[in-house]
Amino acid sequence: MIEKTLKINDLLIIFEVMADSAHKGVPWEITFDNLKDIVSADASSVIEKIKDGRVKGYSLSKSLKDAGISDILCSIVEAGEEHGKLPEALDRCREILKHEKSMKDTIKNITIYPRIVMFVVFAIVIPVLLSFVFPRFRKLLDVVPPEDVPSVLSFMVGVSEKFADYIYATVPIYLTILFILYRFATSPLAWRLYRMVPLVQRIERGKDYTLSFFMFSLMLATGIMVDEIAGAVSKIVSNPEIKRRFERMVVLLRRGIPLPRTAKEVGFEGHIASLLSTGELTGNLEYYLNMIAHIKQKEVEILTNRLLNYLQPVLIGGLVIIIGSIAGAIIIPTMKATMAIR
């Protein structure tokens, strides 16, 4: 959502250093020179573009925009420049990036366990079975009648023989297949399939809600009008439903309808409208917007833990079925062969 030309980590470093420099009054030229020494090569080229913009006399927000920095971050910096609150605006950008990184890490944690399990199965278990276990059952198949041999064992022994006979060809092919599976697992298509799971959809929606209200709170503190904030937020959310709600909010706010009533009319939950109403009545809207963001973030954490709790037994159950089938295919003919020998 926030990244445009750089990764979130590089963006966070850039805005952290810029915010500190703005508070301490460090010249921008020195700031950008220092930044180039601590960021990646891609980020260094972007910093050089920002520096060139400043040398030409452009504002910081325009220099950032010309360098390809996210429009939403540029809008916050521009608002800070217009209202004489540039250090505070850079602080807000830094907080947004920290929050975005935290949310991305939360979602990424969901896929760590499945990746480890799949790696163990495909990179360790299957090669060991094909190379050392199943080839030893060739003699057993010659003793046991064909009708008593499980088809799973016959198939795996046949595959293992081909694997051993043409190992110089099969190993590269197997590694290629693993690489293709890995690329697929990390591709946008796999993520789209993953997001078809209802619980994942709820997590994604909660993540967008969290980021939306968190940004609303931070941008409000820089002096941007609420209708402009709603329009800016609508451009960064990925959930179509939430995007439509914020786009509708822009229209209603420009008609002069109060924010709490607007939130209720576009379909936000009742507690959100109530908190916004309390914020307007107490003159502390920024605090209550931040509270909504924290409530949604807590919901995302709960849903994420629930998904992990569901995912672990499913994966373990799948492994038990696979290993049980293989074990059964090995044990049954072994017992029959032993009985035949007796």
Provide a brief overview of the structure.
The chain is mainly alpha-helical.
Q: What is the overall silhouette?
A: elongated
Largest sheet, in brief, is: none
Count of separate DSSP helical elements: 16
Q: Unreliable runs, pLDDT <50, ≥5 residues?
A: none
Query: How far do the termini sit from each other?
Result: 70 Å
Q: Mean pLDDT score, rounded? A: 79
Helix and strand composition category: mainly alpha
How helical, in percent, are the residues? over 70%
Strand % is: under 5%
Radius of gyration over alpha carbons? 29 Å
Indicate the topology.
Blueprint: H1 8-24, H2 28-35, H3 41-55, H4 60-66, H5 71-82, H6 86-133, H7 138-143, H8 151-165, H9 167-185, H10 188-194, H11 198-220, H12 226-234, H13 240-254, H14 259-265, H15 270-282, H16 285-341
Keywords summarizing the entry:
single chain; 342 residues; mainly alpha; 0% strand
Question: Could you walk me through the main structural features you see in this protein, from its secondary elements to its overall organization?
Answer:
This protein has 342 residues and is mostly helical. It is built from 16 helices and no strands. Helix 1 runs antiparallel to helix 6, helix 4 runs antiparallel to helix 5 and helix 6 packs antiparallel against helix 11. It starts with 7 loop residues before the first helix and ends with a helix. The mean pLDDT is 79.
